[in-house]
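Sequence in, structure out. First:
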Amino acid sequence: MGFKCGIVGLPNVGKSTLFNALTQTATAQAANYPFCTIEPNVGEVAVPDTRLQELAATAGSKEIIPSRLTFVDIAGLVKGASKGEGLGNQFLANIREVDAIAYVLRCFEDEDVTHVEGRIDPLADAETVETELMLADMESLEKRIPNIERRIRGQDKEAKVQLMLVEKALVLLREGKPARLVEIEDEHKAAYKQLNLLTTKPVLYVCNVDEASAATGNEYSKMVEERAAKDGAACVTISAKIESEIAQLPSDEAEEFLGELGLEEPGLNRLIRAGYDLLHLQTYFTCGPKETRAWTIPTGYTAPQAAGVIHTDFEKGFIRAETISYDDFIACKGENGAKDAGKMRLEGKDYIVKDGDVMHFRFAN
């Protein structure tokens, strides 16, 4: 199950530097983790999780396989992208495929790096990005209306619901508000999601600051943090320049470098986790002598659905899940200790998987 976070931004905000740091990190991980593939505009990175090492050490696992999140470099965003300016059409096609969008915003001053608008204003940059997405959504919806109306004349009941949802979205978009703010009744949420609007995707603001502000942020990043809190969006402060340097250092040197800067971990770790949280994802583990592996699932998945992430046959033939919480697995020194202590639970089809569950599935062939 793949989850993609698109990275967008105006020219000269540090988007390419940040993405290159991500892909360098992914390349470095490729030697340690299977399934870590890189394409020119795609970086698939491990989700940082210290629990993996603890579980693997407890179980004596030979291999560790983390959860992964895919970042997609969305090229071509300039003012007018929604009308095909720059690489507008390619931009729109790429961004429709992602599950969430990270807005990289310039929060640093540098006379050697010109800003496309001639000023440093991350909130205005965010508005430009959002406006292009809203204009694209408006155009997309307006083009659909004639076809929906024809279906209504043919007594298509689903088309009536679709038109109602389209008109609701257009009212807000024409007021300059993103489609994610439309209030939709539970029974229509699935149909609304099928409209696949760009401005319904969750947003993560990435404040790209100068090196001196990497640990504390600055006046620009604080403005964005306030905007994110108001909008209910996620926000991460990061120095793309520092991240690109860290990505090329051996782990011991990187740790020392971070310490000198007053940072506990790379900003990319926080960015990856923020993307993971933004998509409402969680992790469960399978653990044994061969490998300890993290599996990514949406919050709220049942045990059979979680099993299906490993293989569809596991979900179809699901019988039960032998489940141990992460804390109990570590405290009891592994599966056998947890069994002896009565900490292993047999969970059925209705069980909602919790973050950190260590699971073993029983299924019928």
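Second:
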Amino acid sequence: MSAVTWSAEGPILHIALNRPPANALGPAIVDGLHAALDVADDVSPKVLILSSALDGFFAAGADIKHMTTVDATSFKAYGNGLRSGLDRLARHPALSVAAIDGLALGGGLELAMACTLRVAGAQSKLGLPEVKLGLIPGAGGTQRLPRLVGRGPALDLMLTGRQIDAADALRIGLIDRLVDPGTAVSAARALAAELCAASAPAQQAVVRTVDAADALPLDDGLRYEVEQIQQLFENGEAAEGLRAFVEKRQPNFT
């Protein structure tokens, strides 16, 4: 059985983790994630959905048993493989939605944070417990979590290693939508369908411009925003979107 499977659903590519008992992010899932992203590069979906095929777990973290058997060189190679997979996901031109139903801990939460948006069932638990193992989040957690929730809440979670429930995760901005238990995948599919209705170039520009807000002074960010909207008007799908609005019809976005 493959640790990662994928299926095309029109413009959506659904990637599912399936490594019992808890989707530990060992080499099998790392390799499977890269293979799924290779497919995404080939088929160019508008939206990726990341979910789990296991009850009670999105992903419970890095593969601790594997980490106890490797030397420093192999540990670095394992970390690099995981980090590069998450970076590929975060930088993919398709929008991505993590569907969390259950535990998303350590590397599992880092995987979810690499997605554009996160939907979580109300019974889910999220956290970065690496300090309890004498480590720190090493697959983007120390960088992505503060950008999502702010410095104080990020330090609280990482310094204590505690878990929070989905309601608290929504309150601090760690997840974007809170849904009934067991419905995260269907909610992610509905969100993906909603995302597919809009212009992909415009959505990509939104992500780029919002990301720039973290990196640029306000005046530079405002100038970057002007550049992005001008490019969309000249070279994107704005002409079709504006014409469809005037003609009172749905736009024919690619």
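Remark: The longest helix spans residues 72-91.
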